[in-house]
Design goal:
The chain is an all-alpha fold. It has 23 helices and no strands. The radius of gyration is 24 Å and the shape is globular. The model is unreliable at 1-35 (pLDDT under 50).
């Protein structure tokens, strides 16, 4: 017995450990937990810099518009291309993200993504005209599209089940922080220097990737048995018993090996239909209920009712960070479903408040109250979005797809997300010209339908392993 206890001590060869010998046996349990989580935390910390980078890409075009158009002599049409080509790059990134992550691994995909972002920002930094600018924006967009799939999937695959929701939701907290950082730094830095600032998250990530293991589930999937055991042991700690988790992943993979690798069309087979409908449906709910339009044109909305736009947008950005963080805390306690339902109900309320404000403005009633109505409506909208619909579709997407369709189904869900961003932000101005309050009534109806969709179809996934969730959904 004594020999067994001493073995790990000698192996660790840490001089302090002999003194704490007895204490250590008493604290065995505590030490195991401490030891077993820090690598998961470190890996998550490294991965979410991809999300922060994602946020800086989105936030970049807002504070720099005036300076770039002036210095490079761009027409409004040329600047609009610069702003929106990001989503085109992201759609391409989304379509290829699953293939890349399945082919060269989750870490390989993160590296590829960071490389595209670095190339893009350098192109923007050195840009002398529209072409280099657009190329840079397209490249960072591509990187974003890949990040938007790989970061939540990687985190979900390495996390213990009781922490998975919170850690995956950090993805969204970091996106919101990246946007906010871009807004803030954009007020003090020139647009070229802001592009260099946006390289920082990539640098942190590229260095960090040397310190963390690959996703054990991916290693098991490509048949690297030994590396799979090593990676899982690294993530769960030297003392942890990983046999149960390893067996479950292995059994699950054996079942999967009997199934063919899914092509896009196979996603519509009966057995996958439910998980694909949930994953893609949540992305539709997230984007078609008006968010991209409202976020992109927030300043104009505030200006149109005579409210100072800087105060409005910064209040929104700060609120988003706080409430997304709250959502990360609640997601493994309250659960996914309840937060989604509360969130969509809040969106309906926010849309109704905005519709009421525009209705009053158009009919010249209670004009003094209109700015307050709009501010409340927009903040209610952004706040409730952040608490559920912002982070949770990404979390659920990373949980519900079986490994053999994860690449293609994940790519489809994320492509839908970017397509939704593009449609909603593109049509927003036209709709507002048609009828400002009508637009918000329409969004309220879409969010109302989202409540029905979530209530009927979306299962609760907290506290279950990925394998249990998928078995339950894809019966």
């Amino acid at each position: 017995m004594k020999g067994e206890v001493r073995k790990p001590l000698i192996r660790n060869s840490n001089p302090h450990q002999h003194h704490h010998h007895h204490q250590e046996e008493e604290n065995g349990v505590q030490r195991e937990n401490k030891e077993s989580l820090w690598m998961v935390y470190l890996s998550t910390f490294v991965a979410v810099w991809g999300s922060f980078e994602f946020g800086t890409c989105i936030g970049y075009s807002s504070p720099t518009q005036a300076a770039i158009t002036e210095e490079l002599n761009l027409s409004l049409a040329e600047y609009s291309v610069f702003g929106s080509i990001l989503t085109i790059g992201a759609m391409v990134g989304a379509v290829t993200s699953g293939l890349i992550a399945d082919f060269i691994g989750r870490k390989g995909a993160l590296r590829t993504s960071a490389a595209f972002c670095v190339a893009g920002w350098l192109s923007i930094y050195f840009a002398k005209g529209a072409l280099a600018l657009d190329f840079g924006r397209l490249a960072t967009g591509y990187g974003m599209g890949v990040f938007s799939y790989v970061v939540p999937v990687f985190i979900a695959e390495i996390s213990p089940k009781n922490l998975r929701g919170a850690l995956t939701a950090l993805n969204q907290v970091m996106i919101a922080s990246g946007v906010f950082a871009s807004y803030l730094m954009g007020t003090i830095l020139t647009w070229r220097i802001l592009a260099i600032f946006s390289l920082l998250p990539c640098a942190i990530m590229l260095i960090g990737l040397f310190l963390i293991p690959e996703s054990p589930r991916w290693l098991a999937k490509i048949g690297k048995q030994k590396e799979f055991q090593v990676a899982l042991r690294k993530l769960r700690g030297k003392e942890a018993d990983i046999s149960g988790e390893a067996d479950e992943i292995q059994d699950y993979l054996e079942t999967l090996q009997k199934l063919p690798q899914a092509k896009m069309l196979d996603l519509f087979q009966k057995r996958y239909l439910r998980s694909v409908t949930i994953g893609v449906g949540l992305m539709v709910c997230q984007k078609f209920g008006g968010l991209p339009g409202i976020l992109f044109y927030q300043s104009q909305i505030f200006v149109s009712v005579g409210f100072p736009p800087d105060i409005g947008t910064n209040a929104g950005a700060a609120l988003q960070i706080v409430l997304t963080a709250l959502s990360a805390v609640l997601i493994d306690r309250a659960g996914r479903r309840i937060l989604l339902l509360v969130s969509t109900a809040g969106l309906v309320l926010g849309c109704i408040l905005c519709a009421a404000a525009f209705f009053l403005k158009e009919h010249e009633l209670l004009l003094d109250a209109v700015p307050a109505f709009i501010l409340t409506g927009i903040l209610v909208y952004i706040g409730f979005f952040s608490i559920g619909l912002g982070a949770i579709p990404w979390v659920v997407m990373s949980e519900i797809f079986p490994l053999n369709i994860k690449g293609s189904a994940g790519s489809l869900a994320i492509w839908m997300n970017w397509f939704g961003s593009w449609v909603t932000s593109y049509t927003f101005n036209y709709l507002m010209t048609w009828s400002s309050y009508g637009t918000f009534i329409m969004y309220a109806v879409i969010n109302g339908l989202a409540i029905v969709f979530i209530a009927i179809l979306v299962p609760e996934t907290k506290g279950r392993t990925l394998e249990e969730i998928q078995a339950a959904i894809n019966k």
